């Protein structure tokens, strides 16, 4: 096969907040999908703090605490790294953060953020952006870019992909645990695109009986 015959990979835009364990599960599934389908994930940030900032009074105390300064810190550092060092660092830093926050159950502490920066070779000085609003507008713009594709009644992750007819197919989720691998990942991808691209289709849902499994 010549270079001109190599198929271009389909871009899959993925919006995440490092805090969300369900988005983390979906992101690991998408990395599996990259291995078995001709797709390439492009990583973008969104923020649960931004999503819920006008309804904090309606949330449980524990969730309000999570969406305070502690909730802003990881995503602020990711957006700062992206702005200073390019789009290609976004996914790498997300993987380092998510592994420590979720798989290692260390939480989104400043120490975890610092360790993640070191792991991917980014300067420790980026940690200062955890408390800085310098890139908050860029963060909000990225958040809005994702959420406007699916509406305000969802959370993270948001996925957007060109459909077979060239029209955008965007959706929240899927919410799944553990992350399917191999052909199971491929089947879920194919099925998700099938239902999400159906005109007038909006929702499939059932009660969660298990928490995230980071196997």
Automatic annotation (TrEMBL):
Q: Which SUPFAM superfamilies match?
A: Thioredoxin-like (SSF52833)
Identify the InterPro entries for this entry: Rv2466c-like (IPR053977), Thioredoxin-like_sf (IPR036249)
Put simply, this protein is called: DsbA family protein
